[in-house]
Amino acid sequence: MKSARAVAHTNIALVKYWGKRDSSPADLNLPAVGSLSLTLDRLRSETTVCPAGHDSFTLNQEPASGEVAGKVLRQLDRVWQAAGHAGPRPPCEVVSRNFLPTAAGLASSASGFAALTLAAAAAFDHDPGRPALSALARRGSGSAARSLWGGFVRLERGVAADGSDCRAYPLHPQAHWDVRLLIVHTERGPKAIGSTAGMQRSRDTSPYYGPWVDTSEADLAAAEAALAARDLAVLGDIVEHSCFKMHACMMASRPPIVYWRGATLDVVHAVWRLRAEGLQGYVTSDAGPHVKVLCLSGQADDLAARLRDVPGVHAVDLVGPGPDPTVEVLA
Ligand code: ADP
Ligand code: DP6
Ligand code: CO
Question: pLDDT class for 101, splitting at 50, 70, 90?
Answer without folding.
Answer: confident
